Amino acid sequence: ALMGNVVVWKPSPTQTHAAVLLMRLLEEAGLPKGVINLVTGDGIEVSKVALEHRDLAGIHFTGSTKTFQYLWKTVGNNIEKYRSYPRLVGETGGKDFLVAHPSADRAVLKTALTRGAFEYQGQKCSATSRAYIPASIWNSGFKEEFAAEVDYLTMGDVTDLANFVGAVIDERAFAKNKAAIDRAKTDPACTIVAGGSYDDSVGYFVRPTVVECSDPENEVFKTEYFGPFLAV
Fold first, then answer.
1. Tens digit of pLDDT for each residue in 3-57?
2. Whole-structure pTM over 0.70, yes or no?
3. Partner of 102 at 20 to 30 A CA spacing, among 60, 118, 141, 162?
4. How many CB atoms lie within 10 A of CB 88?
5. What does the pLDDT average to over 66-91?
6. Euclidean distance between CA atoms 197 and 132, whole angstroms
7. What's the distance, CA 118 to chain centroid?
8. Which of these is catalytic: 45, 52, 91, 145?
9. How is residue 197 annotated by DSSP?
10. Could you confirm whether 144 is annotated as catalytic?
11. Distance (Å, rounded) from C-alpha 91 to C-alpha 80?
């Protein structure tokens, strides 16, 4: 979709500073001006202009499922206006999972869960947000071992490399994860195994949280919180 086309890059408002810095690096490396055009601002306003343009050749989107569905519908409604057929690529919600085999190495499993669920505060599309672990492993001391490791994870300023976990991206993300934890605490099908606390007094910090749930249809297995929240 990108070959032979110039690019309009619309970053998330929470990522603007990093996007500007990256553009400066690209230009210093020799990228000609105008090949990539960084545009900041309201997502709806920017996309409205781009999606109405007859030369739109493609969209590569990373974000929520709802937003990508909006983009897809709009392109479909405008299909007769375009010079060609825009190619759409979307990386949206995943609610990624891990399935452990009864023969799994416990140490490897523990590392996979910890890094998969809590690196980058779970704020990545590929984050392990649910896990299916055999009772023969989970109930034979693994649950307590894993909980102890999660509770041991250091949390704080990401410029201090001793910290494994930093803050979530903004107030909205904090509120979403806080609400999910609060609901899990009062849900009779759920038990907080590790974490379960949060603090927004200085930054938006949510402790890496592991929730054991007996109901496979529970929201903790279906809703993507995009934070340090793992359902087992």
1. 678 999 999 999 999 999 999 999 999 999 999 999 998 888 888 899 999 999 9
2. yes
3. 118
4. 15
5. 94
6. 24
7. 11
8. 91
9. -
10. no
11. 25
- Which among 116, 207, 113, 201 has a CA at the least distance from the CA of 168? 207
Fold topology of 97-231: Aldehyde Dehydrogenase; Chain A, domain 2 (3.40.309)
What tens digit of pLDDT does each residue of 142-176 get? Answer: 999 999 999 999 999 999 999 999 999 999 999 99
209-213 vs 190-194, strand pairing mode: antiparallel
Domain boundaries, the chain: 7-91, 97-231
- Helix, strand or coil for residue 66? helix
E-only strand ranges, the chain:
7-9, 36-38, 58-62, 87-91, 97-99, 130-132, 190-194, 198-199, 205-206, 209-213, 229-231
Q: Which of 131, 155, 151, 133 is nearest to 142 (CA)?
A: 133
| Catalytic status, residue 190 | no
Q: How many residues does the chain have?
A: 232
Cα separation values, 214 from 97, 110, 147, 184, Å: 16, 21, 17, 12
End-to-end CA distance of the chain: 39
Cα→Cα distances 16→75, 97, 155, Å: 25, 30, 24
d(CA 221, CA 152): 25
* Whether 195 contacts 207, CB under 8 Å: yes
Structure tokens at 42: 């309201």
H-state helical runs in 15-156: 16-28, 43-52, 65-77, 106-118, 135-137, 143-152
